[in-house]
Amino acid sequence: MLKGLAITPPAIGRISIGRVVERNGKRLPEKDDQFTLTTQVQTRDGWVLHPLDDELRKAAGGKLRSIPVQMLFNDPALNLRADYSLFDRNKGRPMCVGNGETCRRRGKDGVEQLPCPGADACGFAQGECKPYARLHALVDGGASDELGSFVLRTTSYNTIRTLAARLEYLHAVSDGNLACLPLELKLRGKSTAMSFGTPIYYVDLVLRAGLSMEQAVADAKQLAKRRREAGVDQKALDQAAHRGFANGAFEELEEDGSAVVEEFFSTGAADRAADVGACVESGLKSRLDARVAAATNRA
């Protein structure tokens, strides 16, 4: 095994809730209110759709807001890889990855291990560091490759926190048989004070529709038993994944990092967020001015 190269689960596709569009000569990320399954091939027109996207969309009757999945590993931390990440926005290379306590950072003399104060308090990142997570999931219908996963990438605090909690809870209630549970990814919407009534979307992980907790756990235990009797060693698979992730300092390759930067860390996205903030402030000011004027007229 090549030292310094993280061995990650083989990816056969992507799960996204947005796309990158060209606007005023800039390529900018644009959020959506549904899932899209793509291959790993990107053309000038965007990512090529995976055949499962059309299949699941037809079954859903239109917008794809839930995806039937199973986890590849029993260990929650292997299915969801989350950290604070800083990328070189020109080259797409990961520069620093940390967990809020320690980080691995590229320097002149190689990769150093240093204290990590978190994204908000890091002087090195200067505000360019974000939480960044990858969820590896098996999509039902793609069982021809039972070790090939679809990858959902996200920088959403809501998605990361929700998925982390769900994975831990589901692992606990299933007596550790997380990889055997019938699950589905579900897109949820919420409004916050920061969104000013506009819905924002995040990803949740729940039991497959129509299944009770008792039935889902019983089915998972039966499947785990059948796998053991057939010689499938889930514990060894988890151990192999642990070794693979630990083999390298950074999990994202530079060639993949460019697409990650474009979608999640681009300067264009930051500029657009600033423009949205300005519009919100302008809207609030207009509403306040109108209220003041109305109050003055009544007086």
Biggest sheet, open or closed, and with what strands and sense?
A: 12 strands, mixed
Q: Terminal Cα separation, in Å? A: 79 Å
Q: What is the succession of H and E elements?
A: EEEHEHEEEEEEHEEHHHH
Shape: globular
Percent of sequence in beta strands:
25-35%
User: How many domains comprise the coordinates?
Assistant: 1
What class do helices, strands and sheet pairing give?
alpha+beta
* Averaged pLDDT: 86
Mind explaining what this structure looks like?
The protein has 299 residues and is an alpha+beta fold. The protein has one domain (11-74, 137-286). 35% of the residues lie in helices and 33% in strands. The chain has seven helices and twelve strands. Strands 1, 2, 3, 4, 5, 6, 7, 8, 9, 10, 11 and 12 form a twelve-stranded mixed beta sheet that branches. Strand 7 (102-107) and strand 8 form a beta hairpin. Helix 6 (254-265) packs parallel to helix 7.
What is the structure about, briefly put?
This protein has 299 residues and is an alpha+beta fold. The protein is 35% helix and 33% strand.
Give the secondary structure arrangement, pairings included.
Layout: E1 11-23, E2 26-43, E3 46-49, H1 51-60, E4 66-71, H2 76-79, E5 80-87, E6 94-98, E7 102-107, E8 110-115, E9 130-139, E10 149-154, H3 157-173, E11 183-190, E12 200-207, H4 213-229, H5 234-246, H6 254-265, H7 267-298
Helix pairs in contact: 6-7
InterPro entries: Gp3-like (IPR043991)
Keywords: Hydrolase
Organism: Fulvimonas yonginensis
